[in-house]
Structures are given as structure tokens and as C-alpha cells.
Amino acid sequence: MFAAILTTLLFALSGLSGRRLSNHLPGSKANLLRLVLAASVLGSYAHLQGFGVSGPAFAWLFVSGCIGFGIGDLALFQAYPRIGTRRTMVLVQCLAAPIAAVTEWIWLGTVPGATQAIFGAIILLGVGIALMPGLAEVGPSHGLWMGSLFGTLAALCQAWGAVLSRKAYAVAAAQDFHINGAGGGINAAYQRLLGGLVISAIFVLYLRFVRRPRTAAHPPQWRRAGPLLIANGLCGPAFGVSCYQWALSAAPTSIVLPIVATTPLVVMPLAHFLEGDKMTLRTLLGGALAVGGVVGLTLLR
Questions:
Q1: Residues 120/179, Cβ–Cβ less than 8 Å
Q2: What's the pLDDT tens digit per position in 63-88?
Q3: Alpha-carbon gap, residue 89 to 100, rounded angstroms
Q4: How far are the Cα atoms of 110, 117, 300 from residue 253, in angstroms, in the given order?
Q5: In the chain, at which end, N or C, are there fewer CB atoms within 10 A of the end residue's CB?
Q6: What b-and-e string marks burial along 117-134, b requiring 16 or more CB atoms within 10 Å of the CB?
Q7: Predicted TM-score (pTM) of this structure
Q8: pLDDT tens digit string along 189-206?
Q9: DSSP helix/strand/coil, 219
Q10: What is the Cα–Cα distance from 293 to 119, expressed in whole angstroms?
Q11: Are 158 and 241 in contact (CB under 8 A)?
């Protein structure tokens, strides 16, 4: 449970730095560079202190990264401009957890307890209340259907990527190869990151040589982007995902994903104090409800 909460905090810091980073670097290039940085950091540990790319779980974790890191992120960034950040967050966060729980139940036979399901539903309800755009906010005038489809695809990829990680741990344990603790999470995150890195690199090459932009892009601002890129790479795909994998090695998706779904709620107060973003009463009430659900799941463990 501690690992899931730590994941949420690190993902929130990654989100804040990523928001600023997007002002200085193109999204596809920034995403690839942060994955390269993270892979370098995690790979150093994995090959020196861990098990590198060996172990019976590698193929499962690699595919998990291709789906969750790779395809999922691409779909996510297609949904953002079509239906907006908040609608995308609601769609992805509130769909991924139940999809993962049902998939893990059908495939792996992991059935969440009734109390776990209730607290998980409370968390997702709070997230939905806090992030749902208000009645006064203008909805998307075009691209609603495509944006919703991309958002749903992102939710499916996030859910199935998490379940594939759970499958990887089960396969490894069946062969008496246990991936436990923070060290195991780092190595598992590295193997998973390699899959996402491959998909991201293919997409960047596609944009570079096949589908070139019609308008000239703004030149990268490396001086300002450098510190943000390091912060985003370390908090997100490096240590954030390491804690995420650590959490998934110890608890089912029905517990981990609802807690991680509160990441946008952690971003909001940070953005309020650091960037002056406004918070509404509805946001505070939804956040309190979600935090109450997290506390319930924590005490349950």
C-alpha cells in the first residue's frame, strides 16, 4: 500500500513537470527523451545489482510496457486535444481500474473482496466528482467521438498493462523466481520500460520520416527544458513506475489502480500553490471522498 501511495506522489510531480516541459519541447520528442533517461537510470541498477533483462517474466513485462507505456500514452495524447485534459482524466482513471479488476478476475482468478470493491468505487467516484468539468465549462465542439475512443483505448491499455504485470509476477513465482520489494520493482520497471521505449521510438521515426509536420515546429528550448526533463523522467517512468511495479507485485490491480487514480487530485493542490491554479468546492469535496477511500483501503490492509 505504501508503494501505491508513493507512486501517486511521484506521478503527481511528474505531471507538474511534464506540463511545463510541453512548453519547451515537442511532446513526442520529450516523451522519448524521458524514457531514454529513465531506462539509463533503471538499467544501471538492473544490470549491476538486479537481473537485467533475464528472468521468466521478461517477455510479459516487455509486452506490458508496449501496451501500457507505448500504445496507451499515444492514445492518451490523442485524446487530450479532442476532449480536454479533465475529461480525458475522468475517462481514463475511472475506466482503467474496473477494467483491470474484471480482467484480472477472469484471467488470473483474483477476486477483490466486497470491502475492497466498495472502497475502490468510493475512490473512483471521488475522482470523477473532482475532475468532471462543470456545467459552465464549454464542451468540445468537434472530435468528441474520436477523443472518447482514444480515451477508452488509453484506459484499456493502462488496465491491461497492469494486469500483464501481475501475470508476469505470477509466471516468475511459479518458477521460484520472486520479484519482490523496491529492488524488484526497479528491475521490473526497467524491463517494462524497454517495451514502451521501442513503441515511442517507432512513433518518433514515423513522424520524422513518414508523416512530417505541415508547419514548422518551434525550436526546442533546451536550456529551460533540461531540468524539467530530468525531473519528469525521474519522477515518472523511472522511480514512479518502479514504485508502481513494486505495488503491483504485492497487491492486485483492484487495490493499486484506484489509489493511483487519485494522482490528478494530488496535482491540483500542488498546482494551486506552485502555479496559482484555482480549486473549486466540488474539487475539494471529490478529493476528500477519494482520500477517504484511500484511507479505507490502507486500513483494510
A1: no
A2: 999 999 889 888 888 888 788 777 78
A3: 16
A4: 9, 11, 15
A5: C
A6: eebbebbbebbbbbbbee
A7: 0.88
A8: 999 999 999 998 998 888
A9: coil
A10: 5
A11: no
